[in-house]
Structure formats: structure tokens, C-alpha cells
Specification:
- Pfam families: Molybdop_Fe4S4, Molybdopterin, Molydop_binding.
- With 939 residues, the protein is of the alpha/beta class.
- Helix content is 24%, strand content 15%.
- A hairpin with a 4-residue loop joins strand 31 and strand 32.
- The radius of gyration is 27 Å and the shape is globular.
- The model has no long low-confidence stretch (mean pLDDT 95).
Length: 939
């Protein structure tokens, strides 16, 4: 008789499951952390979680390797060698906090603007901004200025929200889904789930991207567009749809400012919207033929009527749109060559958008009442939805391109309707519901309001009486008037140049600004180590916080080591970047499922201790005692407004209130019991038409999203932009400098336009060069992860077949890639599914030797590389005596993807052994990790 081995087919995975929130990208998925003997044994998705519903990607599963990474910082550090040497000594937390307080307290009391506090991919920005506001410095922002501010700003100015964290497609009803410039790192699990639903139903996916990878690889149609021309392509689609009359006129007249009258009278108000004495936009009522406020009960706005007053004919916004977009300059035949898309294909895509939006329209039998008091028996579904991200945003024409995409959705009537794009609470929010930016306060006192906001016109610029910038990054100046997320990529170079002033302390969190998160990488490293004639550093003090020994650590004077995400409290708040879905408001926490085995502390709790030691206003009571002992205490007990705190769930003494309510001291325990999240579902009938649906507005007020109903019109015509144009034309008290007048007048058009970026391929630099993040990586810490490195341990330069042949390249060859700023030598790989004049690579794979506890011969440090070495924060000289920022002129968004290069085969390929430029190793405060990362969990 054959004896079969006894196999345990259901081995015990864990002793306990602790449910929390992932931090391996910005999806904020729910995870089940399996524990054995108090250690992490396994991470899987939480099937009850509203974001991922159990789906977990490679990043999320590999979180266990982050928690055990050899690169983790182990204790506070104080620099003992020169900056950049990586030479530190370990110090106690008491010495670290005392040192930081000694540096910061004097600034708070005398010159708070000399502190520049900037955070990277921080997911607690409502808290870090609160800290900076109470310190009194005007110099605060997070990483949005070099990521996707164009998308966010354009969306809010146009329709009260944008893609990703602001909204999502109606996945269950969409029949045509169109992506623009989307890589796979942002919101990847929900998009994968959504695309799976579309494919199962036979819906169509169109991917617009120079690179066919990820989502574009599974799209039914791939449009390999020329980088930076998406706006021109979209305006051509608008041209065709308007010319064919395939737009939703009823939707435009009811819910947008298309029927609002534009002042045609010459003078300081020309081009502004006509308003009544209460400031309400005026439309012509079809019934009376007379002007009326847009929200007057019973009014039916007329798109075609004009209004004559004092001999001047005032026309509605829609007339101005028709005049612009019906022009032949937007005909497919006129734009095809620049976009790299045949005219016939542009026409086909426009026809398909119209066919699905109108011929496949449907209705839901759901009654709802709009803000004018009119009750509708049904809801009209138009099953077309869009998604766009950094590939669109990171161009110098990105703001207007993002606006064009939003306008295209609106013309089709596909926003906030069944089958279309839907907002996630707390959005939609009109610009009027957002603050304006605030700058200088008085020493020892907080700013009067938040740093970042949405300017309504020149009066909101952060400049002094002489026109000088109040902020170190020059946000909210004539150079970048609507820079709602700041310009993090300009902070170090401006501080080094002393323009607009010198700073004393640079304080950064999770911002790898000496390597992959910066333009002009080698230049920034020099700026961080530059000295004055007296031998002192130009930037006198640098404080840095990170969980890992990144490249930036070596350039700091004081290191405050952070925990990993399973060792601390975090709050994914409705006040910040929540986890909501279109059908519900939701928020979440992280909590210490394990205790640190190192002398490290959560950064947010460290900020509270610094604030308490300095007795910062907002953090201390009138008697000087602290309000909160740590971040967990703050999350529960802080109230931004009465009854409104960081978390919306389980409020009140009994934990039975949501949105608004008194503090519940057991709130965190209730979140932990519930899986680390809270969900409040929108009632049926309030779930669509959110900006105009009275039921949704009332529900949002009850949840504390608004203090009063905030119905508004979508802004096809953005009036604040016209206010800046008027200033450039000589109107108003605040005037731009002469050298910026033409740019403001030309670029800040209140209707979306397209223009060439400043890097147009002069001097032989004619090839487009891009980066994008892979699905398996997000932050630069991904490529020190032992599991994820097996997926992406190096990054070749992907080159289209045409350029490979043209330059005699074969796969595995080394190529020299040059820009006006510098050159790199890198390995190449052929890719056919790629725009034929574009090269690209994965972002943040390349590492500097000595960082991240990797060995000096690690593939990331020898075969990996950065395109950042080719990109400068300033544009090449134009011959006008000025150096212009490499940014969008409206928002200051870093124009990463405008890079133009030339490519050639390396001169002596047999002599090339590693990517160039190669920098000397950094001395690591954590040393080098073991060759094999092994540990035992359980018995």
C-alpha cells in the first residue's frame, strides 16, 4: 500500500488579524494585517473596505517588506561631517527636539517667514498646514505643485472637482471610458476594478497616451498622441461636436454658465460676467426675455438670446465659445500633424463620443428637485466618462489642457449624471467655497488663514506693495497667479539664490529633493551644500524627516526619523484627501498594529511636541498647557469648526453621530473595530446631479461638508482669469510688471486654449522624453523593497522602432541622451507601441550609491537612472535677459513632460559599465542591508 504524505492543506496563517489602511501608494486601500507572535506575517486586502473591496496589488502585499526594510532609520541623527557626506551621530529624542526648538523658536518670535516648511507625499496635509499656519510662516506647501496641480486647479475652477480623489466614473453604467495621460500608480486598484467591470459588460476603453503600457495596453483603442498636444486634440473634438450640434444644450443652459451674459462694454469690467445687485450671474429668461439671476425659481436660461444696454450688446458665454471653437484652426485637418493623430481618426473619436452620449442615453426613474425648485421625475444618463492625470498635468500648457478636458465632458452633459463622471464627497465644491491664500502675518502669531487657496483676482496675490513675492517659492505672484498648491520644485533654488529673500531653516518631510523629486538634480545637490564667503552654508539649517535612509538624508543637519505606516496613527480625513467613493462619504485611519523596534516616532506626533515646546498658538491653551499630547489625541479632540473634526464617523458621546457632533473619546477604538474606516452613504435620489440637487446639498450640510447649501454653475468661462487679463491690459490698482503683461494676457484666457510649450525642439533637441511610474512602484521607496525590486530592479530607456533604426541602436546598447541642460548615458530597449518621436523610462528606479541600504553594485545604482539630470527648473535662455521658470505660467505646475532631447549611440559602448552621470557613494547612517533579507515569524 502506498503511503501518501500528510500535508496541511490549510495552515494557520496568523494568530490575529489587525485591519488598517495601506500606505504603499495613494489609493488608501483597506488591508488585513495577519499577525503571528506580535509580528507581521502577511498582508491581504480587506473585502469590506469601500475603496478596494479586497483587491490588493503587489505594492500593498509588499508592505511587509517596508516594515522590515534594512534602510529604516533607527534613531535621531545630527550631522557631524560636511553636508552630503552622510556622516552623522545618533542622538536622543530630547536632544533632537531641543535642537529643533532652538532653531525654530527664535524664527517664530522674530521672522517666521525664514522657515520654509514643505512636505512631500504626505497624507496629512490638513494637519501639517495647520501647524505651519500657527507657526506663522507663509512658506508651506506639499508636493502637488510638482505633481498634478494643473488637474486639481483646473477641475475646481471649472466644475468644483477633478479626477481621482475628487471623482470617478460611474463604473456600473459607463459604456465609453476615455483616459488621458494616466499611468498606473494613482488609484490603481479602483481603476483596475472599474476597467474589469467595463470589459465584462463589453464597454469600450480609449487610451490617449504616447506610451502603450498598463491601462492603455488593455484599452480597445490606443491613441499614441504627441506629448503636450492633448489640449489641441480635445479642442478639435469640441470643434467637431459643436459643429455637428452634438452637445447637450438643455444641460448647458440649466447647470453651466453658458447662458450667463458677458459684459461687452469697454472699460475695467469688459469680459466680466454681468451680475445683479446681489452678485448673482445674470441670464436671459426664455419666458420673459429679460435678465434674471441664474438661480431664480422658475427661470429657464436662454443660450441664444443677447441683451442690449446703453447701446452695447452683451452676449452669453455660449456665443463666445461658438465663435472660438467653430474656427477652422481647430478642424482635425489643421491639428492632425501636431497631435500625431490622423484627421480621420479624430473625427471617428468625436463621432463615437457623440453616439454613446446621445444615442445610448438612458433614464433612471428617480425623482429629484433642483436648486431652482423644479422637480424632475427622471435622471438622464449619458454613459461617457473620462479620467486624466499627471501626463496631462505636467506640461506648461497643462492647466488649459485640463480645462479643455473638463469642458468637453460638460458639453456632452456627462458630469454628475448616470453613466458619466461623478464627484466624491466632500466634492463638488465651487471656488467660492474655498479660501483665498494667506501670506505674511506678524511674528509670534498665526497667519490669518490657510496658506493655499484659490485666487479670485489680483487682489489675492501674495506680493508686497513693491510687487515682491511674499513666499519663497513665488507662488501667487504675477509669475504664477493661480498656483494653488505652491511650487515645491522652486523652493531650494530660490532659497539658494536669496530670491525673493534668504531663509534660515528648510524643514522637509518625505521629500526626496536631492534626487528623484527634483529638477536639476546635480545642481540642487550643489545648492544644498553651497557655502557663503564666510564658510557658512547658504541655506543655514536643514531639518528632514523620513522613515528611510533616502538620498535626501545626507543633506540634512538634523534627522527626525519617522515610523513606517504600520507603526503610527494616521488620519485620511474629509478635511484633507479622503477615501470617498461617489456614492458615499468615507474616511479612514492607520493605527500602530505593531510597535517600532527602533528609536523612531511618527512625524505628526513630533510636530505636536515641537508645537507644545514652542507654545504655538492653536496648539496651546491660554495657560500655556498643550491641547494635545500626540497625533492620536489631535485626531480625536481637534475641531476645525464646532462639531467638525478630522474624522466624521462615530462622533458624539455615544458614537452614534456622523459628520457633525461632539468629540467622542473612544472614536479611534470604534474605527479600529470597524476595520479602520467609516462610510456614510448618500441617500438614493441625492446621488446624482450633486451641485444642483437639493437633497444632496441638504445631506452635505448635515454631514458637515458645507455649512449651508452651495449650488453653483459649472464655469465654462472662468471669470478670475479674466480679472488677471484686465490687469495686464492696464486696469486696476495692482499691475503686473511689463515683461509679464503679454504672457498673462495671452495665456490666462477664461475659455480653454492651447499653446505650444516653451521647449519646442530648438538646436536639434526634437525628441520628446517622458517618465511614468509603474504599477508596482509609487514613492521612491518602492525600489528598495525586496519583493518589488524583482519586478523593476533597473529601468532602460524605451525607444520607438523608428529612432532605434535611425540611430543604429539595438536592444541592450548604451545611448547618450542630451538636453540643453546636460546629458546621460543609459541602456536602451526597443518599444513598438510608443509615439514614434518619444522616448521614456520608469521614474524613481535609479538610486544613488549608498542610499536605501542598497549595495553599491545594485542594479538600481548601476543600470538604473533618472531623466531628472536633463531637466532644469529654469528654461534655456531666450536672449531676453531673463530666465523663465520651467512651469505652467498659470499655476506654476512643474513642466516635467515638456523635456526635449536628442539621442545618439554611445561613442565607446564597450567602455560603458554603468549609467551616467555616476555620483560617488553616500556614507549611509544605516549601512548596507544583508544579501538575503530573511526573518522568521511565528514558531
Amino acid at each position: 500500500m502506498t503511503h501518501q504524505p500528510k500535508l496541511d492543506l490549510s495552515p494557520k496563517v496568523s494568530d490575529e488579524i489587525r485591519r488598517t489602511t495601506c500606505y504603499m501608494c495613494a489609493c488608501r486601500c483597506g488591508i488585513n494585517v495577519h499577525m503571528k507572535d506580535g509580528k507581521v506575517a502577511y498582508i491581504e486586502g480587506n473585502r469590506d473596505h469601500p475603496v478596494n473591496k479586497g483587491v490588493l496589488c503587489a505594492k500593498g502585499s509588499a508592505g511587509i517588506m517596508q516594515v522590515n526594510a534594512p534602510s529604516r532609520l533607527r534613531a535621531p541623527l545630527k550631522r557631524v561631517g560636511p553636508r552630503g557626506s552622510g556622516e552623522f551621530r545618533e542622538i536622543s529624542w530630547d536632544e533632537a527636539i531641543s535642537t529643533a526648538v532652538g532653531w525654530l523658536n527664535e524664527l517664530h518670535e522674530t521672522a517666521p517667514h525664514k522657515l520654509a516648511f514643505f512636505t512631500g507625499r504626505d497624507q496629512s496635509q490638513s494637519f501639517t498646514s495647520f501647524w505651519a499656519q500657527n507657526f506663522g510662516t507663509p512658506n508651506y506647501a506639499a508636493h502637488g505643485g510638482f505633481c498634478s496641480v494643473n488637474m486639481a486647479a483646473a477641475g475646481i475652477y471649472t466644475m468644483g472637482g477633478a479626477f481621482w480623489e475628487f471623482g470617478q466614473p460611474d463604473w456600473d453604467r459607463t459604456r465609453l471610458f476615455m483616459l488621458f495621460g494616466v499611468a498606473e500608480d494613482h488609484d490603481s486598484n479602483p481603476i483596475k476594478i472599474g476597467i474589469g467591470k467595463l470589459k465584462a459588460r463589453g464597454a469600450r476603453v480609449i487610451g490617449v497616451n504616447p506610451v502603450r503600457s498598463g491601462y492603455n495596453a488593455v484599452a480597445d483603442d490606443w491613441v499614441g498622441i504627441t506629448p503636450g498636444t492633448d489640449g489641441l486634440f480635445v479642442l478639435s473634438l469640441i470643434h467637431l461636436l459643436m459643429k455637428a450640434g452634438r452637445i447637450d444644450l438643455d444641460y448647458l443652459s440649466r447647470y453651466t454658465n453658458a447662458p450667463v451674459l458677458v459684459n461687452a462694454a469697454e472699460g475695467p469690467d469688459q469680459g466680466l460676467l454681468l451680475r445683479d445687485e446681489n452678485g448673482k450671474e445674470l441670464v436671459i429668461d426664455r419666458a420673459t426675455g429679460k435678465p434674471a439671476p441664474f438661480d431664480q425659481p422658475g427661470v429657464r436660461p436662454d443660450l441664444s438670446a443677447t441683451y442690449k444696454r446703453d447701446g452695447v450688446v452683451h452676449r452669453p458665454v455660449f456665443h463666445h465659445m461658438a465663435e472660438r471653437y467653430l474656427s477652422d484652426e481647430y478642424a482635425p485637418e489643421a491639428v492632425a500633424g501636431r497631435c500625431g493623430i490622423p484627421a480621420k481618426r479624430i473625427r471617428a473619436i468625436a463621432a463615437e463620443l457623440a453616439r454613446v452620449a446621445f444615442d445610448e442615453a438612458f433614464t433612471l426613474d428617480r425623482e429629484w428637485t433642483d436648486f431652482r425648485g423644479e422637480t424632475h421625475k427622471t435622471m438622464t444618463g449619458r454613459p461617457v466618462s473620462f479620467h486624466a492625470m499627471r501626463g496631462i498635468s505636467a506640461h506648461a500648457n497643462g492647466f488649459q489642457t485640463c480645462r479643455a478636458i473638463h469642458v468637453l465632458q460638460i458639453l456632452l452633459g456627462t458630469v454628475e449624471v448616470p453613466g458619466g463622471f461623478r464627484f466624491k464627497p466632500p466634492y463638488p465644491k465651487p471656488v467660492s467655497a474655498h479660501p483665498t491664500p494667506h501670506g505674511h502675518g506678524r511674528p509670534g502669531r498665526p497667519l490669518e488663514g490657510p496658506h493655499l487657496g484659490f485666487p479670485r483676482g489680483p487682489q489675492d496675490l501674495q506680493i508686497d506693495d513693491e510687487g515682491r513675492a511674499k513666499r519663497i517659492d513665488k507662488a501667487f505672484t504675477w509669475e504664477n497667479p493661480m498656483s494653488v498648491h505652491g511650487l515645491m520644485h522652486m523652493v531650494i533654488s530660490n532659497a539658494h539664490a536669496g530670491d525673493p529673500y534668504r531663509i534660515d531653516t528648510l524643514f522637509m518631510y518625505m521629500a526626496n529633493m536631492s534626487w528623484n523629486s527634483t529638477m536639476n538634480t546635480s545642481g540642487v545637490m550643489e545648492m544644498l551644500t553651497a557655502r557663503n564667503d564666510d564658510g557658512r552654508y547658504v541655506i543655514p539649517r536643514i531639518i528632514y524627516s523620513d522613515a528611510y535612509s533616502s538620498e535626501m538624508v545626507a543633506y540634512a543637519d538634523l534627522i527626525l526619523p519617522d515610523t513606517t505606516y504600520l507603526e503610527r496613527h494616521d488620519c485620511i480625513s474629509l478635511l484633507d484627501r479622503p477615501i470617498c467613493e461617489a456614492d458615499a462619504a468615507a474616511d479612514a485611519i492607520r493605527w500602530p498594529v505593531i510597535e517600532p523596534d527602533r528609536d523612531v516616532r511618527g512625524f505628526q506626533s513630533v510636530l505636536i511636541e515641537l508645537a507644545n515646546r514652542m507654545q504655538l498658538p492653536g496648539f496651546t491653551r491660554s495657560d500655556g498647557s498643550p491641547k494635545w499630547k500626540d497625533y492620536a489625541d489631535y485626531i480625536v479632540n481637534h475641531e476645525r469648526r464646532p462639531g467638525i473634526g478630522p474624522l466624521a464617523g462615530f462622533r458624539g458621546e455615544n458614537g452614534d453621530l456622523e459628520g457633525r457632533g461632539p468629540v467622542n473619546p473612544d472614536q479611534l477604538d470604534r474605527y479600529i473595530e470597524n476595520g479602520g474606516f467609516y462610510v456614510a452613504h448618500i441617500p438614493e435620489g441625492a446621488d446624482y446631479y450633486k451641485p444642483w440637487n437639493s437633497a444632496y446639498q441638504d445631506w452635505a450640510v448635515g454631514m458637515g461638508l458645507y455649512d449651508s447649501p452651495q449650488p453653483y454653475l459649472f464655469q465654462l468661462y472662468v471669470e478670475p482669469m479674466r480679472r488677471f487679463q484686465l490687469a495686464a491690459e492696464g486696469h486696476g490698482d495692482r499691475q503686473p510688471p511689463d515683461h509679464l503683461r503679454a504672457r498673462i494676457r495671452d495665456k490666462m484666457n477664461p475659455l480653454p486654449i492651447w499653446y505650444e510649450t516653451d521647449q519646442t525642439g530648438n538646436e536639434g533637441f526634437t525628441v520628446n522624453a517622458l517618465t511614468q511610474r509603474p504599477m508596482a512602484m509609487y514613492h521612491s521607496w518602492g525600489t528598495q523593497n525586496a519583493w518589488l525590486r524583482q519586478l523593476h530592479g533597473r529601468n532602460p530607456l524605451y525607444v520607438p522602432t523608428r529612432l532605434m533604426r535611425e540611430h543604429g541602436l539595438e536592444e541592450g546598447d548604451w545611448a547618450k541622451v542630451s538636453s540643453p541642460h546636460g546629458s546621460i548615458t543609459v541602456p536602451v530597449m526597443e518599444m513598438a507601441a510608443l509615439n514614434d518621436n518619444t522616448v521614456w523610462t520608469w521614474n524613481a528606479i535609479g538610486k544613488r550609491k549608498g542610499a536605501w541600504a542598497l549595495t553599491d553594485d545594485a542594479p538600481e545604482a548601476t543600470k538604473g537612472f533618472l531623466l531628472n539630470h536633463l531637466i532644469h527648473e529654469l528654461l534655456p535662455p531666450r536672449g531676453d535677459g531673463l530666465r523663465w521658470a520651467n512651469s505652467d505660467p498659470i499655476t506654476g505646475q512643474a513642466a516635467w513632460f515638456d523635456l526635449k532631447v536628442k539621442i545618439e549611440k554611445a561613442a565607446n559602448p564597450e567602455e560603458v559599465t554603468e549609467s551616467q552621470p555616476a555620483f560617488g557613494p553616500i556614507k549611509s547612517p544605516v549601512g548596507t542591508g544583508p544579501k538575503n533579507l530573511v526573518w522568521k515569524v511565528g514558531k
